[in-house]
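User:
Hi there, any thoughts?
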Amino acid sequence: MTVYTFSGEINLGRSTHGFEREVDAESENHAEEKLYAELGSEHSIPRSKITIEDVSEQE
């Protein structure tokens, strides 16, 4: 498994917050899906409110 680091912004209505999160997955697409699921669940927001600005792969 590979660790991917994502950074971006979450739109929470009246405010926007930056985030940086590491996700462990087999591919970048799978890591992105896990990120959307985790952030959406934590903040009760749809995927359209999450903007990914940067992705890097760590070895």
Summary: The two ends are 9 Å apart (CA to CA).
